[in-house]
Design a protein that fits this description.
46% helix, three-stranded antiparallel beta sheet, mainly alpha
């Protein structure tokens, strides 16, 4: 009789953090450094070798204990996290207080690019609201004024030298801020105008940015599609691993590190993602994953939310290299409770 080692909805024994049915079930040895299905079977066979059992239930109990122990063992590729912890971080990030906590109100007023733009947006909406364009976007005049305030005169001239800001989409950071604020229920359209939501008014009158930031953060990681901004391959799994990168930044971010360190760590932890990249005549699957990961997770997320500084240090043939360092807001907004 064939005895299942891992349930379909259990964390995959390869250590990917995915459910078994969505990872190595039916595959041969896909995983990290020998921790795939083949590796798990080999370990189990070794553990069973020489043991005597009096019943099938005793065998099943041993297998379940072995699998549980394996899923709770730290994995080198996860930098000290176990498959079970990774599973919780990937699938239940806001419902796993034993692993991670997100304060609803921060201890201090946070500073982040998205908050700067959100403040400009809410101040302009004010009590009277803001009339959108015929297509439902932010008016051109406001977009230009917001860009000047956000960038400063020198950067504004540089950023618009090849084309001005004629619509909301020409200022992507503001466009994304508006979309995320709507997803978070902080602003909405009512009777043909952008207005502040009831919760937004209460939060601004009370705790302010310390309570606004967690709302924007959660809407960005749970509801906003990260692939929307760069329009490259979807790869939603990159978005699902946001906590793994923040965990790495918590461990190593006090020192400047090249962005390749985080790319390499991501690919070592989740090599099966390369199989999800469709064929392309220009980029290899690895190049595509690296580009999407660095843009979406480091630049458009960690940098935009003030969790890390992502500085360009060189550019060659439109390929940028960055150095990355965590910011104090990271440990305040995202509190890990794991040993690494």
């Amino acid at each position: 009789m064939k005895i299942p080692v891992t349930g379909r909805n259990d964390p995959c024994p390869c250590g990917s953090g995915k459910k078994f049915k969505g990872c190595c079930l039916g595959k041969d040895g896909l995983g990290t450094s020998g921790r795939g299905g083949t590796g798990a079977s080999a370990e189990l066979r070794q553990a069973l070798e020489g043991r005597q059992f009096t019943s099938l239930s005793e065998v099943q109990e041993f297998i379940e204990h072995h699998t549980q122990q394996r899923n709770q063992t730290p994995v080198d590729e996860f930098h000290g996290l176990s498959p079970e912890q990774m599973h919780r971080m990937l699938h239940f990030p806001f419902a796993s207080p034993e692993v991670i906590r997100f304060p609803a109100i921060l201890d201090t007023n946070p500073k982040a690019p998205i908050l700067t733009l959100f403040s400009l947006l809410t101040e302009t909406i004010g009590e009277q609201g803001l009339k959108p364009t015929a297509k439902g976007n932010l008016p051109q005049k406001f977009c230009r004024e917001a860009a000047l305030a956000y960038w400063g005169e020198t950067a504004y001239r540089e950023n618009t030298r090849l084309g001005g800001i004629n619509r909301e989409y020409d200022f992507p950071d503001l466009h994304i801020t508006r979309l995320v604020a709507e997803l978070a229920g902080l602003i909405r359209k009512h009777k043909g105008r952008f207005i502040l939501g009831r919760d937004c008014r209460a939060l601004l009158a009370g705790e302010g940015p310390a309570a606004i930031y967690p709302r924007l953060f959660r809407a960005y990681v749970e509801q906003f599609n990260w692939a929307y901004r760069d329009r490259r391959v979807e790869l939603r799994f990159i978005q699902a691993t946001f906590l793994f990168t923040l965990y790495l930044l918590t461990l190593y971010g006090e020192n400047w590190l090249p962005h390749e360190f985080y790319e390499d760590s991501f690919l070592r932890a989740f090599p099966v993602l390369l199989d999800e990249v469709p064929p392309d005549s220009v980029f290899t699957p690895e190049e595509e994953v690296r580009t999407c990961y660095t843009r979406r997770t480091l630049g458009y997320f960690a940098g935009f939310f003030g969790l890390a500084t992502v500085d360009p240090v060189s550019e060659k043939h439109l390929h940028y290299r960055y150095r990355v360092k965590s910011l104090p807001l990271l440990r305040e907004a995202v509190q890990f409770h794991v040993s690494g």
